[in-house]
Design a protein that fits this description.
Strand order of the largest sheet: 1-20-19-18-17
Helix content: under 10%
Number of strands: 24
Structural class: mainly beta
Bound molecules: 2-acetamido-2-deoxy-beta-D-glucopyranose
Number of helices: 2
Shape: globular
Largest sheet: 5 strands, mixed
Distance between the termini: 23 Å
Order of helices and strands: EEEEEEEEEEEEEEEEEEEEEHEEHE
């Protein structure tokens, strides 16, 4: 079994209490003319203009830097059926009005565009103008994100093929939904092109490889991977996930894992996973990661972690599984904790596991991934790792 990376320090264990929040300060409210209350899914702020974009169910909002509502776009509901492909519908498909749940909202600063992906039509994406979201530059018929209301999707832009770090791609992690014959073509993790001519296509493809990773067809229905957060750090792209520990046991505990690919790897040979643990001083395990953020530490935290204030740090909030089912539940309880990891320690742990792997023992944490990569003894690494 491969080793897990542990948090160096546990900062807080937070017990969430129900009840009114004292001193809540609402800056501004806005009302949708169509009186149905729609759930907000994603929010991004343009770091250059301060404009705010909100992806919601059936709506996309553009707000000014002082939070005045400027534009409301209607993205759904539309007639749809999972039996339709992105291109067309068989005559047997029964279409019905379906909500469009926003699954990804990403600013592409290179082209100053907003990328918006929704659950409708197999999970396609559109490119919109950041100055005016009503202006749609491109709608791409390519299944990119999850195509139902609840399955997870994480998307972020970072360096990738053909020429990193100059060229940027969109990294996407998607939970498999077995609701349509077309979903087996959507990779669990992929790097997608942001070039106008091949927008959202897999950045690099070859006959059996490319910048994509599929989950084994036997495992993907019973052992779904939930994508929670994604980020880039020092030449690697990472995803935080929750998944079952074993693919061979029906009652497997749920754990959190960190998935990593090397940004200059055109074939995802470098795809590796390691468990991520958050355990408090009493040995209580917070097994389900709920949210993450990569930033820089303050000077106290940096010295505590033995790193500099310029090094990356991962802040992650975890919950314990619901008490009744122990770690066997993917549902979070009300007990949660914040764990902090230095990316330096995370890189070291990946390196250790990969070294163990290339001496022929353990695995790359790829129980569910097809084709499965068992560790084989090699004399040299097939890809480079910057330590
Ligand atoms: C955005 O563009 C639409 C259509 O091109 C136009 O009708 C609308 O007035 C524009 N909105 C703003 C706030 O510029
Ligand atoms: C979406 O798909 C996932 C994975 O198959 C499934 O667990 C979930 O229940 C589905 N959600 C809805 C609303 O159908």
């Amino acid at each position: 079994m491969i080793g897990a990376v542990r948090s160096t320090i546990l900062v807080w264990a937070v017990w969430l209490c129900a009840g009114p929040t004292a001193g809540a300060n609402i800056v501004r409210t806005f009302r949708d003319d169509v009186h149905t209350v729609e759930k907000f899914n994603h929010l991004v702020v343009d770091k250059n203009t301060g404009r705010v974009y909100i992806g919601a169910v059936n709506r996309l909002y553009q707000l000014s830097p002082d939070l005045e509502l400027v534009i409301t776009e209607f993205t759904g509901p539309h007639d749809d059926s999972p039996d339709c492909s992105v291109i067309d519908c068989p005559s047997s498909a029964v279409k019905k009005p379906t909500d469009n749940v926003n699954k990804a909202l990403v600013i592409d600063y290179t082209t100053t565009r907003l990328i918006v992906c929704g659950s409708l039509f197999q999970g396609i994406c559109a490119v919109r103008n950041l100055h005016n979201i009503s202006d749609v530059a491109q709608v791409v018929k390519e299944a990119v994100v999850a195509n139902n209301a609840t399955a997870s999707t994480v998307a972020f832009i970072a360096p990738g093929p053909p020429n990193p770090p100059v060229s940027q791609v969109m990294y996407v992690g998607v939970t498999y939904t077995g609701n349509s014959p077309y979903r087996s073509e959507v990779p669990a993790v992929s790097s997608r092109s942001l070039d106008k001519e091949k927008m959202f296509m897999i950045a690099r493809t070859a006959v059996t490889t490319g910048t994509r990773m599929f989950v084994n067809s036997l495992a993907r229905e019973r052992y779904p991977i939930n994508y929670v957060y994604g980020f880039s750090s020092e030449g690697f792209s990472y995803f935080l996930t929750t998944q079952m520990k074993y693919s061979t046991q029906p009652q497997s505990p749920f754990i959190s894992k960190l998935v990593r690919v090397c940004q200059d790897d055109e074939n995802y040979y470098s795809y590796t996973e390691i468990p991520l643990e958050c355990i408090d001083s009493e040995g209580k395990k917070y097994n389900l990661v709920q949210a993450g953020y990569v930033g820089k530490p303050g000077s106290d935290l940096a010295s505590n972690l033995g790193i500099t204030a310029q090094d990356d740090v991962l802040f992650a909030v975890f919950s314990e599984s619901e008490q009744s089912e122990g770690e066997g539940s993917s549902k979070p309880s009300r007990f949660s904790a914040l764990c902090v990891y230095s990316l330096k320690a995370i890189r070291r742990k990946f390196m250790q596991n990969i070294k163990t792997c290339f001496t022929g023992s353990g695995d790359r944490g790829l129980d569910f991934i097809s084709p499965s990569h068992n560790c084989v003894q090699t004399v040299s690494f097939p890809y480079t790792i910057s330590a």
